[in-house]
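Ticket #4471: structure output looks truncated?

Reporter: J.K.
Steps to reproduce: submitted the chain below (456 residues) through the standard prediction queue, then opened the result file.
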Amino acid sequence: MISLQQQLRRQWLITILLIMLPLLLLADFGVRQLVTDTVMSRLQHDADSLIAALSQNENGEWQLDDSHLGTLYQRVYSGHYFAIRDEHGTDLRSRSLWDKQAPVIPLNFGEQQKWQQLGIQGDQLAEQWLNWAKGIRVQDHDFTIWVAEDITPLNNQLNRYRIAAISLLAMALVSLMLIQRYQLSRAFARLEPLKQQLRALRFGERDDLNAASGLYPQEVQPLAEEIDRLLSLLQQRVGRSRNALGNLAHEMKRPLQQLQLLAEQLAEQLDASHQIEQRDALSRLSRLVERELKRARIVGMSSPGRQLKLAEDLPPLLQILGQLYPQARIHAAYDQDAVLPQDHDDLLELLGNLLDNACKYAGGEIQLSIEAYQHQDDQAGWQIQVRDQGPGIEPNQCKHLLQRGIRLDEHSAQGDGLGLAIVSDIVDSYQGELTLSHNQPQGLCVSVWLPMQQIL
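Returned output as attached by the reporter:
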């Protein structure tokens, strides 16, 4: 998973590149165009000087006045070249060409052309010519004048400029990235109070994010306020639901007692089969009421979102069960620093139902163990085991009870079935596993495996 800082840095880098690359290409094009225009202007100026130096001698032959020519056109392979031709065979060219031929470009009067081409190659030369040619008329005589300059040194200088520009751009980009990283780190540091509050909320050290304190940046303040509102609403709803359920179970005890009294008074008027059905129905209602009352006592006040800290949350549960079942002795083995990442209320209800079954139907010595456990597919998790010395259940019944879609309470007239339906639902909600097996030398062993979830 990519963090928000990494995503912002990546998007920022892409944005900078999308902006800088076109600018860099535009700057490169502008420099090349400026160099080309400068050289072309110089070639035209040299062509004007050559035209001014062109004249006829006494024999009618065309010639150039050397005094008008620069020394660059006199030095062999100097990189500056010219040629003047006409259709009558006149061919005046610079000494710098030596034995090389100038390109033949016949142009009409007024026509001009510019282009680039490879120049003189070999003899440790690798020239690139920038050419300019134009059709001219001198004393009613038409010529084609051609001038060229080797721009290889300028290209080399331009390449060095490109390398320097790219290097400076890369350094600037790295500097900007470092500055941006520093700024993002400072900006996200303002979210540290929110992270600490969420951690405290997860471990049950607080009930809300305290959004009204104004500790959070303006951008996340509405989020913190909405989380606080939802937490408050959730706590109220869960609390009301559990209180209503507990109150309902409590209020049903008196009518049940009255029904039992009436049943005893009417027992003489009913046959044996109806008496048995009546007692069973009242017994089931009584067990349901007792179970809901115990659940309310076990879970206590609602605290959604918290995790289960064994050292803090397990002793009160064991104390309540000890008061409910004095005949049972629960021995718990667990890491005092262990924190189970699943929901606090869910795990209390799971443990309460497992231990309640063991205490009610087995009594005596009960072993509870909670430890980190590596699953068969190498997935880390928590193993919860409850062992008792009671009558246990048959192996074939274990498999039947754990089939999906089978409600375990339906098979709980006797034995360890009561409350396992709730345990099964909680385990399924966390993609865990619930197994029932025979305990040595007797009794039942209930094992629950829950995956290790990431803690904020």
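Triage note (M.O.): checked the attachment and the full token line is present. The two ends are 14 Å apart (CA to CA).
Status: closed, working as intended.
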